[in-house]
Design a protein that fits this description.
Blueprint: H1 5-13, E1 21-23, H2 36-41, E2 43-44, E3 50-53, E4 64-67, E5 71-74, H3 83-101, E6 106-107, E7 115-124, E8 132-136, H4 142-152, E9 158-159, E10 163-171, E11 177-187, E12 193-194, H5 198-219
Parallel strand pairs: 4-6, 4-7, 5-7
Antiparallel strand pairs: 1-11, 2-3, 3-11, 5-8, 7-10, 9-12, 10-11
């Protein structure tokens, strides 16, 4: 069964609808984004993801963040997105992350005290398919992103798929691993989602960015962390 990246990520956006998606049964395998050593540290969490938090570091002292470009890891023979569409999806993820993480943390560009680095990736999950690094996001002005997204992401093909969102948080000065997480979702046979309209892409990336911000909030033990709905 063929899927597209946006179809895969859309499965993640349906997390709240238990009838539509299910937590992947098998532990996530290294994609090349998170190292095998980091994956080995992950443990099941109460939110359904697999999580690691460095027990020797007080993460609450970090109030600034460097947001690394979003990476897309795709199964080459599986992806139906063009190069231009992949770039738009990656850039939309990056813009949404900056929006959501910037609500509680100061976004900076250089390492320094109290600064964490958040690296993220989305990869396709498919039995027998090995994802490879396909696209890295760049910053794009919101007006240009919306214009290019509306032009490139058209249509309404319903597809089925699964995806894993991966996140690593490190100290900007030492590179020490502070936290890591993987949320892997599989779509059930009845989960049909639209994959190629720009408004659907926007909904998916905003959900995923909110989920990432929620994880960071929980890791830092801040009050009133709001899970995306």
């Amino acid at each position: 069964m063929k899927t597209s990246l946006v179809a895969a990520v859309s499965a993640m956006a349906l997390i709240s609808a238990c009838s539509s998606t299910q937590q992947a049964a098998a532990p996530p395998q290294p994609s090349g984004f998170l190292s095998r050593e980091t994956v080995a540290l992950l443990r099941p969490s109460d939110t359904g993801s697999r999580l690691y938090i460095n027990p020797n570091i007080d993460l609450r002292r970090y109030n600034k963040v460097i947001i690394e470009p979003v990476q897309l890891w795709l199964v080459p023979e599986n992806s139906k997105l063009t190069e231009e569409q992949r770039k738009v999806v990656a850039n939309a993820f990056y813009a949404a992350l900056r929006e959501h993480l910037g609500r509680d943390l100061q976004i900076v560009e250089r390492p320094g005290p109290g600064t964490m680095v958040i690296s993220t990736a989305i990869r396709e999950v498919r039995e027998g398919g090995n994802p490879v690094l396909s696209t890295i996001s760049t910053f794009m002005p919101p007006a240009r992103l919306a214009r290019e997204g509306a032009n490139l992401m058209t249509g309404s093909d319903p597809m089925v798929g699964g995806a894993a969102g991966e996140m690593a948080v490190t100290d900007s000065e030492t590179g020490q691993l502070l936290a890591a997480a993987v949320d892997s979702r599989d779509a059930t046979a009845g989960a049909r989602v639209r994959t190629s309209r720009w408004d659907d892409v926007q909904s998916v990336v905003r959900f995923w960015a909110a989920q990432t911000a929620f994880r960071v909030c929980r890791v830092q033990q801040r009050p009133n962390c709001q899970a995306p709905s």
